[in-house]
């Protein structure tokens, strides 16, 4: 369930393990894992003008380290690093209208607007 398949999940096959950004930001980043096989994953969500988009992809240890690295300055970089990783991976997307879909060639990740 955590990798592209013809049958789409009805609920996310991933569970959040550790949030990396605050819960009230327009973009959220967290470590997650597959509920079945326990593989490490990235979770990213964005609130785009009241439409909620969610993205998940499997990640390796090097990508976990990139995401866990502290931000360099006052502007958060974790969301940008998460979007970059998602753009290279097979990604499970849940949009506000169509529900779940797999993007196997890297996702065009929608970025939340600065409020």
UniProtKB/TrEMBL annotation:
It comes from the Bacteria. This is Uncharacterized protein. It comes from Caenimonas sedimenti.
């Amino acid at each position: 369930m955590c990798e592209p398949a013809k049958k789409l999940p009805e609920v996310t096959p991933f569970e959040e393990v550790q949030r990396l950004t605050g819960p009230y930001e327009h973009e959220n980043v967290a470590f997650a894992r597959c509920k079945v096989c326990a593989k490490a994953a990235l979770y990213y969500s964005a609130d785009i003008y009241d439409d909620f988009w969610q993205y998940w992809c499997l990640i390796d240890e090097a990508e976990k380290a990139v995401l866990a690295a502290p931000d360099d300055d006052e502007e958060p970089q974790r969301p940008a690093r998460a979007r970059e990783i998602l753009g290279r991976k097979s990604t499970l997307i849940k949009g506000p209208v169509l529900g779940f879909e797999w993007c196997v060639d890297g996702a065009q990740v929608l970025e939340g607007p600065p409020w």
